[in-house]
Predict the 3D structure of the following.
Amino acid sequence: MSTGLHITQGTFSYLPDLTDEEIKAQIQYGIDNGWAVAIEFTDDPHPRNVYWEMWGMPMFDIEDPAAALHEVKRCREAFPEHYIRVSLFNPALTKMTTALQFLVNRPPHEPGFRLDRQEVRDRSIRYTIHPYAADLPHGDRYRNGRE
Amino acid sequence: MDDSREVPPAMVTKGLGWSGREAPPAPPPAGPGVGEEISGRFGRGEAEERFRELEDPLREIPDETEVDVEHVVGDSRIEEVLEGLDRELVALQEVKGRIREIASLLVVDRLRRLLNLEADPPTLHMVFTGNPGTGKTTVARKMGQILYSLGYVRKGHLVSVGRDDLVGQYVGHTAPKTREVIKRAMGGVLFIDEAYHIYRVDNERDYGQETVEILLEVMENSREDLVVIMAGYKDHMDRFFHDVPGLSSRIAHHINFPDYDLDELMEIAHLMVEQQRYRFSEDAVQAFREYLGERKKQPRFANGRSVRNALDRARMRQAVRLYEAARRGRRLTKKDLVTIEAEDILASRVFEGGFYKKSVPTGER
């Protein structure tokens, strides 16, 4: 059986998944810089999916990363088989952008992607990445056939 | 693995969802051990346990091993903290004793940790009860700093809230509001003044119940992240604990703030006068003592707060006296400006039978 495709994305896409302690250290770094902490989740693994759902409000005034990790844990509890990511938003006047973003949760089994080829005029080929997970409707993905 | 089904990893892994045009700022190193032993799942379960194993191989340490007490004590600034308390707070032996206990426990904990003897962090949630003006709020405000210098809390800030900050106005409003406040206080101290207002037992549609439930959960499960201090008048707090079973037992430290006696009140007065850079004349000391003796007998005496109010009024009378004197052509010296005389105190209404006595016409004084 295929082990699927381990999706990585964001600032630490080159690293193995962070542990809770490491997540805390990253959030502390953001807090020290005055960045807001947001938690988002989705079950659509497509790389071009930018519409993640927010878990609660962004946290603008926390002093300690334990608060954000507390929310991460609550989100994992509610969506154990979704992708969850933490975004640190830099609100400085000249930046106003996400400064740091990383995954903090993933489904236990990630089936991966299929490459679709579409033959168009003059035998040109167009390519599409199709996540196998997206074959199922939203909310039913990553259940591994469970009811 | 069936490779034909897969896209080359590079296509999916490269900067997914990263929209920034500029390079992300250099993040701090992601922590020890990354890329070595830990892989796969996120910090839940196996990976985390693996981590601990790496860090802390169960070593056998003989019972006779000595620990460096002096180093740890010096490191934690405990003596400094306790001295500061003695200097700034009059009386309140019970409070100081309790802080000394907590301090000792934290030192011993640290020593034990040197020898790999782990124990759960102690519960430090507290309730302060006592009459008005006995120093509950003052001590709570100091507590954040104290626990921080003892190394119990990570940040040491104090978030002071009342009912309005915790309880929402409509259905579904309370939980997020309470959680928001709790998150803000994490790493420090959450101070709830007059906590009994949170829960109104006579109104069953009150949303305070929800707040209490969330608080209970957090006090139990996030002990190492936050210290909750509640303060309030004794009888009200007792009723509150009676109405909310399970709260009282989750709070390890119930500290009662007794009323001050006359000597202690005088000591407080001296401290306050000194802080404001005034001085009592010798007669004034005597007069203020008499004043306090009288005032204590009258209703609505508020200990430290009454002392402060009396001093404020005395300052005002002194100011009037000096101003009048200056208008009559008297030269004022520094000594005049810093000295509170007996007459500034004796002019108080307290000596005429009191603030609340109806027969006394209310005049300027």
